Amino acid sequence: MGSSIYLAVPVMILLAVVQTAVLPRFPILGLIPQLPFLVALSRGLLRGVNEGIVWAFIGGICLDLFSVGPVGATALAFMFSIVAVIWIENAMPANRFFIPIIMAALATLIYLFVYFLLLRLLNYPSNWQLLTDLLPTALLHGALVLPVYWIMSFLEQRFRPRPVKI
Amino acid sequence: MNLNEAQRRIRWAIFIILAGTAVLLTILDRTGNMDEALNFIRDPLTVITKWTSARTDTVADALEGPRNLQAARDEIAQLQARVDALERENEELREVQGEYQQLLDLFNRTRQEPTFTRLTASVIGRDTNPSLRSIIIDKGSEDGIVVGMPVEGARGLVGQVFRTTAHSAQVVLVTDNASSIPARLGTSRATGLLRGGGLGGVVSIDWIDLKHEIAVGEVVMTSGLGGKFPQDIVIGRVIEVDRREAELFQRAIVQPAVAFDSLEIVFVITSFRPVDTEIFSSPPGG
User: Fold this and answer.
1) From CA B170, how far away is CA B140, in angstroms rounded?
2) Structural domain boundaries enclosing B267
3) Is residue B133 part of a domain?
4) Residue in A104, A11, A24 with CA at minimum distance from that of residue A58
5) CB-based contact (8 Å) between A7 and chain B?
6) For position B112, what pLDDT does the model report?
């Protein structure tokens, strides 16, 4: 996992810049997907929960640098959601198509709910209506996770081939 | 202890350490003990974001171009005109006209309110979290921006400076959940508290006295009460009135004048310093 951290920092900084400066100019059906979240989730699904947690933490901190929200809150929400879905995923049959979709939608809901709770805990004004408004984001993440997951899976196989057992 | 057990312990240790770090960062951030460190990180990121934002604008404009061109082509085909040269010329003129209109709006806004000193800033980023509504601008504390300064666009109020670094600032939009602005209606002169609805929510004015007859279409402006915003900055228009006789107050839904999704240039009102009214909420001698 050691080298993964060194890779995660520049990748997540880059994605956070893309998230704040590029993606808002190209909304999909009026929604802006959270690319660092999808990448951290895909990393977790591909490489296991340990890497998922580290990528989620770094991604969350990078995103918080561009947000008016409290620094660390996104990282916490990301980590909780990714740990939860990978735990659920372990109990499900392996599938490269449906599992990432379901997990992305579920992880998004958990992440947004945890983030919402953290905002309330920190006395940041928020109302419950916000949660229902965020449902489409979960669906969008469900749809977009596949290309992200497949690209990361391809890169994983290309640059880090699995050892062959003889 | 077998291998699986060891792995599980490592996993939990990583999670607890990182979660603890995140909680610690949150506490330090909320108590303001990390501002300098964060500004140190944010400043170079601002440079990268600004550069990326400028390139993105170019690409986005180029991508929007073909849509306009397609419309122009259809029209030109119907009119049997010369196609390519006219399309190009037409497109260039449209772009110039768009820029001219934007500058004209900005100029008119400045001329309307010459009493304020304004600093023009470009929008270089937007909040990364879907729950929050804020923008990042390319002017910061070294340009004279101070937390609390009001920010407006060509058409009306945008929000308020929430945090600054040396070369950038984060502005909470009026549509954010945390936004709470004393407002006045133009015709009825009713006052209330304008609240942002966050994502998908509506901007509304709460706590309007029932004695006022509010009409749809009334202009909403800042009232200046509370000392956080100057008076008479346009916020938007009333599009719906929620009036129930059984209740003590009524509520008005507001359509903001500013199109926040396409905001590119804003003014920071630098000559206005928010007034701290907290002292008046303390009991005498307290």
Assistant:
1) 9
2) 118-273
3) yes
4) A11
5) no
6) 65
**B112 in a domain, yes or no?**
no
Closest alpha carbon to B169 in B139, B128, B134, B125? B139
Calpha distance B149→A99 (Å, rounded): 48
Q: How many CB pairs under 8 A join A and B?
A: 156
Residue A10: CB atoms within 10 Å: 10
Domains of chain A: 2-158 (1.10.1760)
Interface ipTM: 0.84
Full-model pTM: 0.75
What is the rounded distance in angstroms from the CA atom of residue B273 to the CA atom of residue B258?
23
What's the pLDDT tens digit per position in B78-115? Answer: 666 566 556 656 766 776 777 777 777 777 766 666 56
How many Å apart are CA B252 and CA B72, to the nearest integer? Answer: 41
Q: CA A148, CA B90: separation in Å to the nearest integer?
A: 39
Tokens of A51: 């890497």
CB atoms within 10 A of CB A141: 27
Distance CA B264, CA B260 (A): 9
% chain B with pLDDT above 90:
28
The token duo for A80 is 């909780």
Residue in chain B closest to A57 (alpha carbons) equals: B18
Cα nearest neighbour of A61 on chain B: B22
Contact B21, A57 (CB under 8 A): yes
CB contact under 8 A, A129 and B127: no
Q: How far is A166 from chain B (nearest CA, A)?
A: 22
Position B199 scores a pLDDT of 65
How many domains does chain B divide into?
1
